Amino acid sequence: MLPIKDEHRIPIIPYVxxxxxxxxxxxxxxxxxxxxxxERLFVIKYGVxxxxxxxxxxxxxxxxxxxxxxxxLSFQFLHGDLFHLAGNMLYLFIFGNNIEAGLGRVRYAxxxxxxxVLAGITHVLVGPASQIPMIGASGxxxxxxxxxxxxxxxxxxxxFIWFFFFxxxxxxxxxxxxxxxxxxQVISVGGExxxxxxxxxxxxxxxxxxxxxxxxxxxxxxxxxH
Length: 226
Known about the structure:
Elements: E1 2-6, H1 15-33, H2 36-46, H3 50-54, H4 71-74, H5 82-103, H6 105-126, H7 138-151, E2 156-163, E3 166-173, H8 174-188, H9 196-213
Antiparallel strand pairs: 1-2, 2-3
Helix pairs in contact: 1-5, 5-6, 5-7, 6-7, 6-9, 7-8, 7-9, 8-9
């Protein structure tokens, strides 16, 4: 089950979503230019390494290293491979523009980054002594998915379904698509290679934060007739 597009139309050009996608792609291209050893160092330096953030690591970091707390932002723009990048950008392209239209560009940018930070914090809290770096935009995008579920649960998401020779494009309510996505994250907790708890933390953060980020409706102007 792969989402292809949503049927909720937006009245704007989603510049922030486009910029976020471009930044992710540019960083990935830069990673490709690095020799293997330097690329590994780049990931450790700018990814979230829980034990570095919590101070539980026995490795002494160079004083000129990127401040560990800021890796909760920088990790959101690094990716492990092309499929990791492509999957995240597909979800950001489908769902991000709607949240940008609802929040406005500045609020959306802040919401996206904060969602990623909270996803990163969730990952750190679950494994504070881990020395494995976490990278990827998945946590930020999970926050976007959580917000989408709250704002547009009945919006139709066109998904690509294939099963041997059965291939169909089927419109499905967002509530079902994102509900299934969240359940898959929960049942996958404990699996290696993916920060499942970061996905869950980002998704829940998005659901909770979206109401606070939504612009307040303007009060109707009262007029007195003489």
